[in-house]
Structures are given as structure tokens and as C-alpha cells.
Amino acid sequence: MAAGGEKKEHLYKILVIGELGTGKTSIIKRYVHQFFSQHYRATIGVDFALKVLNWDADTLIRLQLWDIAGQERFGNMTRVYYKEAVGAFVVFDVTRASTFEAVSKWKNDLDSKVQLPDGSPVPCVLLANKCDQAKEGLVNNTAQMDEFCKEKGFIGWYETSAKENINIDEAARFLVTKILEKDKAMKLGDNDHDNDKIVIDSNRPTGVEKKSTCC
Amino acid sequence: MTSDLPTEFDFVVLGTGLPESILAAAVSRIGYKVLHLDRNDHYSDQWASFNLRAIERFAEKKEGKNKEEKDYGDKIEESETLVRIPTADSLVENIRVKYYIPEYQECMMLVEDMNKLLAPKEDDKNTETGNNDDTGNGIAKPDETQQTAETDGSQVGISDSHESTKSVDTPIPITDDNTRNTATTDNATTHNATTTNNATTTDNVGTNDTSETSTSHTQNSTTDGSATEETTTKSDQPLRKKKKIWTKGELQDSWRAFNIDLAPKLLYSSGKMVELLISSDVAKYCEFRTVSRVLTQHNQYIEKIPCSRADVFSSKDVSMLDKRKLMKFLEWCAGYHKNPEEYEEYKNQTFLEVLKSRKLSEKLQNIISNAIAMVTQDTSTEEGLKKTQVFLQSVGRYGNTPFLFPLYGSGELPQAFCRLCAVFGGIYCLQMTADALIINKENKCEAIITSEGQRISCKWLIMGSSYSPKQYITTDNKRQLSRCILFTDKSLLHSESQELSLLWVPPSDHNIHPITVLELPQSAMVCPKDLYIVHLTTEGSGDPEADFSPFVSQYLSTDGQTQNDEPTEKPSILWSGYFSQQVYRVNEKTCDVPSNIFILDGPSSDIHMDDPVLQAKEIFKHICPDEDFLPKPPHPDDIIYVDETEATAGEGESWVGEKEEGKDDPKNGTSQKAEQAETESEEKKETPQKTLQETTHDSDLPSDQNIVTANKQ
């Protein structure tokens, strides 16, 4: 699929989940659009934000960051949302302990809905967001947080602030590194070259001519 | 958790079935506030696709429970009346799930060893070479051992055997009379008979018969001990190709790999659903596979029919003369829409009468009536022509047959529309429903009371028929579907590759109504490897097992798996699920349904999904006559983010601010930029051409392409 032959391209779908008001959209905006605002015009009609990374000289990575839409409030996401994701961020708000308590619920939900092709859980990073503000609860204890992540199956955690742009790029880089490792092991980004799979594609008129009547 | 639900919506939608979800997406798309509820813990309601665990849980849950009615006197005003919503979905009934294979491999070993002891001579004939790392695959049986056992419902049988070449031309399940064994299991333990590497028999272990078996087990373990496996694996005669032999435990371990449709559906490649998926861009959420074969029944055999021009001309079964006649007839059918007046003279005839008058061979008539048009004796010429036409128009668009199947099951499609609705601000709550509707004195629905007791007002109420209060449904229109889901170990019609097959069985002495058969392989992402899911659907009597039993006994074996892999051998059923589904059609003219309530149909016996699209569109046009029905959304990259203080605090998650702005003219719901994008893509789609999606994309294409790629991972 590489355009010039040499450069490798990957496309990864990453989910951003967590309780209402933890800053998921802010994190995505900061990461993708280098932009922060206390108030956003609602992101109506957007499935995901796209971030293109020139990872190294040989690798181009397109990240699709899937925010949860209106259904998120109650944690009822469609399969369409989870389908074929290869990584995830679970976000909580350090100023509200209740959002941390919900972290396990989100992680369990994630693991039950999606796995990598080999059946292993998708790599997932925990983000302790709004770390520029006063922290509440477990997040103050690094050792305990490490323990928590290990126990719950997070590959790591970061204190982040979308507002101050703290650690967001780092967290993403960490997650992408893990995804790349997984990818190497099991060829994630590789299409299975299954030409029989059909995607109904509206945008591109193609050379394939439709035969109106068959027999 | 849901106490923070807003108290006012434009639309409340009950049920996440297909037409409800399409309609919810359509109104959300143009800016209306939508609350979409479903009483189940899964999406897609009666259109859902379940994994194995979920469908078994679903079957258990259906054992009915009715909640008591709460008093909502304090929630309504004097002029209003309360109309109760049925608390439980009563439309799916009589679910029965059954396994036809043994529970564990271990037990099979024991049994095998035992059998070997009992009938060592027979081994020679029937063993298989090689070591088997999987579930074992030989089955052979001592001729003399014949045992039958009946027990408590869950039957596990194995029929078998070395001499199974007969079969097939007889409509009787394949078994060697003298070797036939049926064993039964009571989900318990070890003694469930059967298959394995080599010699096998079944022993029956009923509750009533324990002594014999237990002694055999003892013998067995004392003599052979652990060495048995090795000794038995060497064999004398290399048997047929290795075939996967399943156990119940293995099926259950692969529970995730299943996507079992309650309402299996296909899409005509040129049908309404495909057009909608393209025009709404919901297509980006789904992938499809073409149905690779259309089958027909001919003289009790199942045969593949030629669908495309090329197929017809290369077919050896059809004579030159017949080919010409067939082409001529099909061209005549295809011309129907251009010159309808030419067809006037056939108006009072049925399609089959017209077909007969064309002097086509009996075989061709069968192909046209049963595989292409799928018509019965009563089908009018007009309807038959239309059905033939959509078939012809759809062939060749994506593949050699006219049909597409959604990967991961038909239950994906409602979810795709729900996702679109959510992306445009629709709020979703599963496991929540309306307990009651509040009707005002003008006979309009004013509000609902949720199952959590909250009053939420709405301008329109949309609901699936399973949510409808009984007084809104005319029972005259009540019909019933019989459904059967089978896991089988091979295809109904042998093929070297994994085939996705459609078979339509016309009404006959055995079945009053036609039966639609959809056979799905692993490549449809609905089941594990080495397995097929067969869906049978018919308009039924309320006793699905009886409705399908002629078909099942003719083409399938219910005696458990055999090792035999002859193409002539019938597929063995490993698991079955039977249920009935009530179908209501609402006749609004005869009922006193409030004018702002719309009740949508559940799945019908149709194999395609065009009717739900038409129904949703019709209601949409009724409610908003001047709006576009699901126009293409803007590309993610074309959305601009504006820092606006009037938007509600926090994240972009709150859609409320946005929506208020668009209240008067819902179209303002999207930013201007987005609208431009719409116009652009509108132009682009002028000729909505589709194609087999290739793996390469131009990198400068809009990110839509990436969705496509992402979905392919």
C-alpha cells in the first residue's frame, strides 16, 4: 500500500473513552489541531479526528482518533465504534475521583468489545487528565498508580493536560510504539488482501463498468 | 446514571431495529434532538446478531418476566391519559437451543478406548492414520455395536461411518443401519460418547443406564491406561481427508467468533439499502461480501444456478437453444420499466403463467421462478417482473450474484445508522425503555415516562412494533415467522472454496410457505473456521421445528458428526436454535394511533432490506417533506472548530448548545463549512459508482478513504 514503494504507511484506529467531562475531546483537539479551548462548538457530524505522523524516515502513520459520540454518556457504544480498533486511551479527570472509579468499567467494556486479531487486548494507555489542576485520590501516589495499571492491564499511564499541553504527545508516542510492536508481530495494518471483501465506495468513479443486465 | 437526561427531545425513538435506526439517523442528521432507547442490553433489537454466549443467554432470558406496572399518577396532568408500553418483548418466542455433539474431547477418548476394547477387530477397517492434534477426527464404528439411547432432551448423536457412501439420493438421514448409534448426554461429564482419532462408538449414558458404562470405563482405564492414544493412532488404512470434528466445549470456546443473526438479510446490489448506504455515507461503517452462489432445488438435488451472462454461456447444463430463450425472456423482463404498456396484456395472469407460456424448459422455469424472481403461484406478473428486474440490475454490480451480505451479520446495519445518529448528537440509552406514553386530549403523544420514571416530552414518537401498545396494532395483520439457525460442518452443496449461498425453496407439499435458506461460511465473519451457519426463514405456524423438519431431514443429518468427508455425505448439524418471531404490520387507518406516533415493522420474511428503507423514508418525508433524507455528512477534515463561549462548558460532548441554535431551521445544525463540504461531495457522487474496493488508495483522497482502509484491517 505504500505510495512510493519505499515508505511504509500504517493506518491505526484509536479509541478515546472515559466519563463525561474528563477532557477526551480536548485531548484530541490538542493533539490533532494544536488547539485548546474551554469551550468547543459541538463536534457534530465527526466520527474521528485524523493525525498524520511522520514516524521515521520510512514510516508514515495515520491515526484515527475516535471520540465517542452522543451515545457515550451511558457507555452504550455501537460495535461500529469499537470495530477494528488497535489501541485506546481511557481518560479520567484528576479533579474528580468519581471519574477514576469509572476507569475499570471502561477498560472492562473495551476488552469485552474488541480484541486484536490474535485475541489479545488492545494496548490501552490511562490518561490522568487536567493535571494542571488540584488532584484528588489515587493519582497522587505514583507507585499505587503503577500497581493499578498493572492489575487492570493498562500498558502505562500519563498525567496529561490538554490545556497546558502536557504529556499528550508523549502518551500518544508511547501508545503508537506499542501498536507498532504489535503490528510487527501480527501484521495489524496489513490488509488481508482479501479482494472479495466489498466496501461500498461512493466517491470514486472507477473504470469498472457496471453491467446492467446480466444474463 | 441517567438522571441527567434532558427532559425535552424532538424525537423519542423506542427500539434500535433497522427502520427505527434509519429514521433516527435521518432526523438527527438534519438537526433534531433525538433520544433513542432500547429495552435490551444490545443494539438492533429483533435484527440483532449475537455471539454464541449471547444467543444462549437470550434464549434463557426469554423465559418471560413481567414487571408490575408502576403508578405514574403524579407525572401526568388531568387532561392527559397514560398508555402503557408492553414491558417485555413478546415478539420472539419458543426459543430452543440444542447441541448435537459431545461435550468434551476427553470423554470421547475414554469412549474410544472402551470401544476399542469391546470391538478391537473393527478398528482395522476404520481408523485413520496420523496423529491428530485437534479434536480427533476418525470415527468408525464396530458394526455390531448398536446402541441407542434417549434421554433428556439434549441429544448427542453420532452416525457414522465407513459405509456412508449411499446417502444423499434418499431423503433419509444417512446412517448405516447396523452401525447407527445415538448417544445422549446429560450435560454432565465423561460419558458422552463419541468420536475420536480412531475407533469410536457411542455409548449411551442415560440416567437410566449407568451400570454398563461405568464398568466399561473401569475396564478401559485398567487395561489401556494412558498408552491408548498412541496405540490407537497408528492405523492401517489412510482414510479420507482430515475433517474437523467439533465438541460442544470447542464451540463454546469460540463463542466470540459467532455473529448469529436473528433476522438474516441480504442487500440487492442495486437495491434501496445499497443506494441509501451510498447516499448517506453510512457505507463507510460496513463491509460486505457478495453471495457467491444462488442455489436452487431441482429433482430433490441442490444445484447452483448460473447468474451472470458468462455463467449462462459457460453452463453445460443449459442447451444452446435454452440459452437463447432464457436471454430473450430475461431481456423482456428487463425492459419492463421502459414500456410498461407492452406488458398490459399479462396483467391478469400470474408470473408463473406468463413464464409457462414462454415455452422454456422445465429446468429454466425452475431457475427463473425459484432462484431469480423467487415467486410463488400467486405472484402477479407485475411483481414477478419487478423482482426479476432488481435481480438483473444487481447482478454484476459487485459480483456474479445480485446479493451482498454485511460482514459480521445483518445486525451491523442498524448499528451503523445508530452510530450516524449519535455522531449527529443522538443520545443512546440501552436497557431503558418507555413504561408509558402520555397522550393529550387532542390524541397526540405529549411525552413518555421512561422505565426510570422520568417524564420526557417529545414532538414525535417512533417505535418498533414490539414496543407498541396493543391497541395500536391490528391483530388481523399479525403474522408469524419461523426461524431456524444451524451450525453445520460442511456446505449443503460441496465446493472447493468457502461459499456464501442463497437457496429459495418454493412452497411444496412439505412447506406451505417458501423457505429462504442462507448458508454463511467463516469468511462472512459469522462463525469460526470449518463451520457453516445455515439460516432458515419461513412464514410459519408457530412450531418452527415442524415447519423446517422436512427440509432439515432431507438435506442435513441430525445424528452428530461423522468422520466421513465424502462430498456426497450430508452436512451434520452440530447446534440448532429454533424460534418464532411475531410480525405485526400496523394499519394506521383502522387504529386510533396518535398522529405523531409512528410504528415501524419488525423483520419480515423478505430476504432483502429494502422495505425498512422505504418505510423509514416515507415517514421521514411525511414529517419533514422539504428535507433531504440522509444527505452525505461532511468529511472530518472539513469541520472547523470554533471557540464559542455560548457553547456549553466542558467538552464538545455536549450537543445542546449547537442544537438550540438550529432549532428553527434544523439545517443550521452543521457549520457552514460543513455545508460546503456537503455540496462538494454531493457533486462528487453524481454517478454513485461502486466497485470492488482495492487495497490501494490515492493518498490525496479525502479521509473517507481512510475509513475504508481502517475498516479493512
Protein described:
The complex is a heterodimer of chains A (215) and B (713). With 215 residues, chain A is of the alpha/beta class. Chain A has helices spanning 24-33, 79-82, 97-101, 103-113, 142-152, 168-186; strands at 8-18, 48-56, 59-67, 87-93, 124-129, 156-159, 197-198. A six-stranded mixed beta sheet of chain A has the order 2-3-1-4-5-6, with helices on both faces. The longest helix of chain A is centred in the last third of the chain and has 19 residues, at 168-186. Chain A is globular, with a radius of gyration of 19 Å. The model of chain A is unreliable at 203-215 (pLDDT under 50). In chain B, the strands form five sheets. In chain B, strands 1, 2, 4, 14, 15, 16, 17 and 23 form an eight-stranded mixed beta sheet that branches. An eight-stranded mixed beta sheet of chain B has the order 5-22-18-21-20-19-11-12, with helices on both faces. A three-stranded antiparallel beta sheet of chain B has the order 9-13-10. Chain B has 19 helices and 23 strands. Chain B is α+β, with helices and mostly antiparallel strands and 713 residues long. Chain B starts with 7 loop residues before the first strand and ends with a helix. Chain B folds into three domains: 8-51 and 409-473 and 586-642, FAD/NAD(P)-binding domain (3-Layer(bba) Sandwich); 94-131 and 153-258 and 479-582, no CATH class; 308-405, Guanine Nucleotide Dissociation Inhibitor, domain 1. Chain B is globular and about 75 Å long. The chains are: A alpha/beta (215), B alpha+beta (713). Chains A and B meet through strand 1, helix 1, strand 2, strand 3 and helix 2 of A and helix 8, strand 10, helix 9, helix 10 and helix 14 of B. Chain A: The small GTPases Rab are key regulators in vesicle trafficking. Chain A: This is Ras-related protein Rab. Chain A: One of its GO terms (biological process) is phagosome-lysosome fusion. Chain A: One of its GO terms (molecular function) is GTP binding.
